Amino acid sequence: DDAWPRQQDPGFPMLNTSKHHVREHSVGSRLALGGCRRLDPRPPRAGRFARAVCGMILLVSLLATTLGAFGRVGTQVRGFPSPGDKPEGLAFDGRYLWCNNFTDGSLYKIDPQDGSVVAHYQGGGLPTSPEGLAWDGEHLWSCHWHTGIIFKLRETSEGMEIVDSFAKPAGSGSSVGLGWDGSNLWLTCWPNPPQFQFGQIYKLDPSNGQVLAMHELPVYWIEDLAWDGTYFWSADWLFGIGFAIDVATGDTLHTYDAPGPNPVGTAWDGTHLWITDTDRDSIWALDISAGRTSVRRLDWGQIKRFFVPK
Question: What predicted TM-score, i.e. pTM, was given to this entire model?
Fold first, then answer.
């Protein structure tokens, strides 16, 4: 029931918890509260009322437990306004943040301590409608929203040099995010019906763009990627939900509520996850430590229903 197109999404339906899970908690609630368990097929009104109360207590308990666990992931640490009006991709080079801007193709080098601009590049063959950023230890990688071209970039004393470029995988959706896992380049793309109804993540050979692996994700509007050494972290642009991705399976993990309604760029600085938002025109550092110290596999269709539009 989670495969509806986004334009037909009816909002946030009630949580469809598994029968096994509900049964275990219901038995525990009946034993704890006593008079809720009856053998009569048609219990009197007082019995029905008591059962309704038990149900409400159970629901509140489940929601509080679940939301409390998610609240530990994605806590804001600090933030500042982005230098551009539509911050897209984000990357960290070990000292500075890099952020590109969708509306004018600007590429900013930013001091993460105060958000000040250290350098600004524009033109010279850089993508005019950029999406995604990744740092491979020596080069930046970016991609073009309209053409799908992926660019390998190097900062020089004269400006930003284009070292290499290649096309996105055939049949993929619009290029939106990039990540580096230490050896390979990863690309995320939006849906491209009828071939792909959902977002995709591709593992690419950085020397030529050859596809080494691919997963169609249980997410529609996937965005940029940040590698923390174990998972890639990304976000759903439309729902404002952040999450981790297990690249071996394509599963989404550790879902959290993003600071703004339209999260896009992500970067990992070794301690915090940084994220941009094109509605709030801001960049934030988030604490995701709880998600990095435990494995909590989540069903996207259920977890997204806990969040409401901002």
Answer: 0.75
